[in-house]
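README, section 4: Worked example with a bound small molecule

Sections 1 through 3 covered apo chains. Here we extend the same pipeline to holo records, where the ligand is supplied as SMILES alongside the sequence. The molecule in this example is pyridoxal-5'-phosphate. Nothing else about the input changes; the structure line simply encodes the ligand pose together with the chain.
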Amino acid sequence: MVIIMTKHVYNFYAGPATLPLPALKKAQEELLDFQGTGMSLMEISHRSKEYAKMHAEASGLVKELMDLPDDYKIMWLQGGASSQFYMVPLNLQQKEKSMEYVNTGVWSKKAIKEGRFYGDVKVVASSEDENFSYIPNDIEFSDNAAFAHITGNNTIYGTEYHEWPKVSSNVPLTCDMSSHIMDKVIDPKKFGVIYAGAQKNIGPAGVTLVIVREDLFGRVPENTPTLQKWKTHAEKDSLFNTGPCWAIYMCKLSLEYLKSLGGVPAIEKINRKKAKILYDVIDNSSGFYRGHAKPASRSLMNVTFNLPTSELEAKCITEGLSRGMVGLKGHRSVGGMRASIYNAMPIEGVQALADFLKEFQEKNQ
Ligand SMILES: *Cc1c(COP(=O)(O)O)cnc(C)c1O
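The generated complex, written as structure tokens:
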């Protein structure tokens, strides 16, 4: 696939975030006439055969790219990743069993807060003592927990799990992969539930990908509202009611791009290269750039760092912007700068940022 750069900025926003250019172009091409229907995909029935084909292809790509076994069901839901913070305990809770979480930042805390509405929550490990700059490595979940919940990548702090915590075979490991789904090869069989808001790594805002191992559908109390039960959506392949058709379509186009690059193994290689380029700049800056995350916990997706003063940070962000690098301001809980370099960020964008940062240091230290 030939990529012509007609976009003039590199978008480092944390989410919604950059999309693959070929996906945007394809959407543009098909906007007024979706595959010969004479209509936009936004205008056609979600029960039409054209839509059904696209919908099945989107799910097929997830299954293929993540190498999901047949007993894992794929759902395209609305409400954002945040809605899964309550749907997880609602669908997985079990009488007399605790729901267990690791607290690695803002998103974990929000998930924990919702869990508490349903019953006994145990926070088994936390990195709050050092402003969430690391992933705890002494995580121990109980053998009889209803589920074990982790936030796979901490978008705000720039930390990521590089090894999965152990759980006993009857405890479903549940992972919020909103900001790193498909950034690297994983063994899906290690997980009971995976969920991700699409707008960071696989598509636009408006749809949340939820993957659940089939045997877990049986747990939900019967008197739970229909739309809050995963199994309602899974049984109808996410066509129980009108879904976020356009957002699913954009995910499909993004996933096709990912596949064209060689799938997740290939994108993992690229992601590791991209992250190394930026972490090398930080590590070779003699302390001018200070990474927030401890090296062993560094994220491949969100690179967070500070400069010697907040004035220099503001200056660096403004100068970056004037060079066509957008979205570099850090989240307020960490401050400083953050470069989000999701799957759709080309290596050229990361290289341009690295060159700029080196030059900025030379001029300002
Ligand atoms: C952005 C983000 C969320 C929230 O996603 P919404 O779709 O806005 O609800 C949850 N978890 C993580 C890790 C995130 O990065």
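What to look for in the output: Residues 263-283 form the longest helix (21 residues). Residues 241 and 259 are 29 Å apart (CA to CA).

Section 5 describes how to batch many such records.
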